[in-house]
Amino acid sequence: MQTHKTITVKHAELESITCDRCKKVINTDNDFELQEVHSISFIGGYSSVFGDMNQVDCDLCQQCLYELIGDFCVYNLGVADLMMPQPEFKADKND
């Protein structure tokens, strides 16, 4: 026979993210801004400009990310556009 007991577990819950560039605070109740925050996290490799084996972390709001890389991005159709029904091609009856 198994017996169980109820326990209380505490866990960390995200409250907000602060952009590391402009210091804008994005709260978790702002879904549209929160989903556009980009968190960068990596470890610098051998001879990296960030330093060998340094942990690098950065949170950027969408405005700052756009200002930093917008000129270098390639813009493609959004996923929603790709999922939209496309008009059917109808061949000419004379073909």
Could you explain how this protein is built, in words?
- It is a single chain.
- The chain is of the alpha+beta class and 95 residues long.
- The chain has one domain.
- It contains three helices and four strands, in the order E-E-H-E-E-H-H.
- It has helices at 31-34, 62-69, 79-83; strands at 16-18, 25-27, 38-43, 55-60.
- Strands 1-2 form a two-stranded antiparallel sheet. Strands 3-4 form a two-stranded antiparallel sheet.
- Strand 1 (16-18) and strand 2 (25-27) form a beta hairpin.
- The longest helix has 8 residues, at 62-69.
- The termini are far apart.
Would you kindly provide a brief summary of this structure?
By secondary structure, the protein is α+β, with helices and mostly antiparallel strands. It has three helices and four strands; from the N terminus they run ββαββαα. It has one domain (16-83).
How are the strands ordered across the major sheet?
A: 1-2
* Cα-to-Cα separation, first versus last residue: 78 Å
State the helicity in percent bands: 10-25%
Q: Write the element-wise H/E pattern from the N-terminal end onward.
A: EEHEEHH
If helices are DSSP runs of H or I spanning 4 or more residues, what is the number of helices? 3
Described by the principal axes of the CA atoms, the overall outline is extended
* Biggest beta sheet attributes: 2 strands, antiparallel
Number of strands: 4
Report the radius of gyration as a whole number of Å. Answer: 23 Å
List low-confidence stretches. none
Structural class of the secondary elements?
Answer: alpha+beta
